[in-house]
Amino acid sequence: MIEVEKNRISSTHGPLEIVEHIVKIPGAPMNVYSFLLDGVLIDTASPGLRTQFFEFIEHKTVDHVLHTHFHEDHISNTAEVIQKFGIEAYIHPISVTKTTTKMRLPRYRQNVWGPPPTPFTSHAYSSTFASKNSVWDIIPTPGHTEDHVALYNRQHGYLFTGDLFVTPKPKIVLVDENILATMASLEKVQKLDFDTMICHHAGVLENGQALIDMKLNYLKELQYRVQKFMNEGLDVFEITKTIFPKQYPIVEHSNSEWSAMHMIRVFMNNG
């Protein structure tokens, strides 16, 4: 059993209201955020954070729920939000049917985030979304998941990146992530006119363009190194150990659902 401590911090950034959930896991502390802007609630945290989450939104005006993707730390209180506020929730079209069925989660993810979320009815995104005072561009950004989207608020120039960015130098990813698709998605959002990037695991980040450049350059260098070692005859295990010699506890806890090897494998198979 993974021992988990939980805390919550509320803050603001201009008109943006922020709740930061701090999940302390031995060897792998994590933060997960939800955001409220112009009546739009972006992602709803995990069921294990339900008390802290509802303390944040208890006396706020929520008109809509937008999701960046179908993962338990982003959608898990949506059913209760819909019930409380009588509103609609939106997600990528390919995940509309998924939200109506019970999510299956590995035991370690339930230990971290809580039990599977309550199913809910969702609506499919179109290319834009209108709230009371803003227009939002819905930008498909696959990679972390196939259904991942970024949300661009035109009024404030904010780019909500979900789990597209997270860190400029990722060391591990989920087994079904496609790092090449992530790179293409980073290049897509790089063309937008924004400076403030709002990440659902790193919070509000200024100089967002520079940070995306940093991550793209890191991944391109990683891709080059993988190809070089592959040409020298190393296999996926040898390349992973050479580039990422450090052992991360989450790899063992997740039975390798999280691993650096998943990045290496994609680079090798698509070289």
UniProtKB/TrEMBL annotation:
UniProt-listed Pfam families: Lactamase_B
Superkingdom of this protein's organism: Bacteria
InterPro entries to which the protein is assigned, alphabetical: Metallo-B-lactamas, RibonucZ/Hydroxyglut_hydro, Sec-metab_biosynth-thioest
E.C. number: 3.-.-.-
Gene3D superfamilies assigned to the protein according to its UniProt record, in alphabetical order: Ribonuclease Z/Hydroxyacylglutathione hydrolase-like
Coiled coil: none
Alphabetized UniProt keyword annotations: Hydrolase
Domain Metallo-beta-lactamase: 31-201
GO MF entries: hydrolase activity
Protein name: MBL fold metallo-hydrolase
Native species: Kurthia populi
